[in-house]
Amino acid sequence: MTRTVIIGLGNDYRGDDGAGLAVARLLRDLGAIENGGDPAELIEAWTGADIAIVVDAARAGDPPGTVRRHHDMMDLPCGGSSTHALSLADAVELAHVLDRLPGELVVYTVEGADFDLGAGLSEPVSTAAHRVARAIFAAATTT
Q: Is 138 exposed, middle or buried (0-12, 13-18, 19+ CB in 10 A)?
């Protein structure tokens, strides 16, 4: 049996940075996990998984609400594109060095508009989070 984990990254107190958490909450019935950006917890969550699906907010210069699905980890936003101290790309690199990557890693990024303290999800990001959750749910329930 294939072990799949779904992980939403983010921070509810930083506006659109909560996109990944919103997706995880929508997929709670599938066992989705919320992660506040802790790379050690992220690596632990996907260790031993056949497939890990991670959802995170991004600042890549795209229109707010743009969703990108990444299979090639070389195209992940890194450094200044992340709203976390260590970016998702940094966590992937660390997991690679530690030989703790999942069998397959699929990353969805949602372009944010507002990362101000205390802001909620903007409308385009909220809409995108629901769209991503539906796509993951459809894929997870048809396999």
A: exposed
104 Cβ contact partners less than 8 Å away, ≥ 6 residues apart: 50, 51, 52
Contact 143, 41 (CB under 8 A): no
Q: How many CA atoms lie within 13 A of 61 on its CB side?
A: 3
Write the DSSP assignment of 60-93 as a string of letters: SSSPTT-EEEESSGGGS--GGG-SSSS-HHHHHH
Q: How far apart are CA 55 and CA 76, in angstroms?
A: 12
Bridge partner list, 106: 53
- SS3 category, 128: helix
pLDDT over threshold 60, residue 85: no
Give per-residue pLDDT as tens, 37-76: 888 999 999 999 999 999 999 998 999 999 999 885 655 5
Task: Supply angle C-alpha 130, 37, 87, rounded to 5.
Answer: 95
Which CATH architecture is the domain 4-142 placed in? 3-Layer(aba) Sandwich (3.40)
What is the distance between the alpha carbons of residues 103 and 49, in angstroms, rounded to a whole number?
6
